[in-house]
């Protein structure tokens, strides 16, 4: 008797994953700078984009700081089921920003970077 092996991932989830990969690339293009860094330093995302990532935190005479680029997507409400594709709960973050969220969950919840559902 021939047996067909069970799929590890459903065909529907494979399709969602493919769509997810496309959308997160588009999301990172639309949000090129780490949203955690911007929020922690009180910098508006539009300002960072306008200045090509160079920010002067100490006024016009202060040194220019380069805002970290976003390289990952952080899911504020985890990435289960339909939430995988829900961009309302996505954040574009750098690796350091993502590690900061994961290492300090209480702080991340207080800042709104992690949500409890």
Question: How would you describe the overall organization of this protein?
Answer:
It is a single chain. This protein has 117 residues and is of the alpha+beta class. It has a domain at 35-111. It has helices at residues 11-30, 35-40, 45-50, 95-103, 105-111, and strands spanning 54-56, 64-66, 72-75, 90-93. A two-stranded antiparallel sheet has the order 1-2. A hairpin with a 7-residue loop joins β1 (54-56) and β2. The model has no long low-confidence stretch (mean pLDDT 90).
Order of strands in the sheet with the most strands?
1-2
Distance between the termini: 47 Å
Kindly report the average pLDDT value. Answer: 90
Biggest sheet descriptor? 2 strands, antiparallel
Extract low-pLDDT stretches. none
Task: Note the topology.
Blueprint: H1 11-30, H2 35-40, H3 45-50, E1 54-56, E2 64-66, E3 72-75, E4 90-93, H4 95-103, H5 105-111
Structural descriptors:
alpha+beta; 117 residues; two-stranded antiparallel ribbon; single chain
Overview in brief:
Helices cover 41% and strands 12% of the residues.
């Amino acid at each position: 008797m021939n047996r067909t092996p069970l799929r590890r991932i459903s065909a529907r989830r494979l399709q969602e994953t493919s769509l997810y990969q496309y959308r997160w690339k588009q999301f990172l293009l639309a949000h090129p700078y780490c949203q955690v860094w911007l929020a922690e330093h009180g910098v508006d995302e539009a300002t960072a984009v306008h200045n090509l990532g160079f920010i002067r935190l100490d006024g016009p005479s202060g040194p220019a700081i380069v805002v970290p680029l976003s390289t990952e997507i952080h899911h504020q409400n985890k990435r289960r089921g339909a939430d995988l594709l829900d961009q309302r709960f996505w954040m574009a973050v750098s690796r350091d920003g993502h590690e900061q969220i994961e290492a300090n969950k209480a702080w991340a919840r207080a800042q709104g970077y992690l949500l409890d559902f």
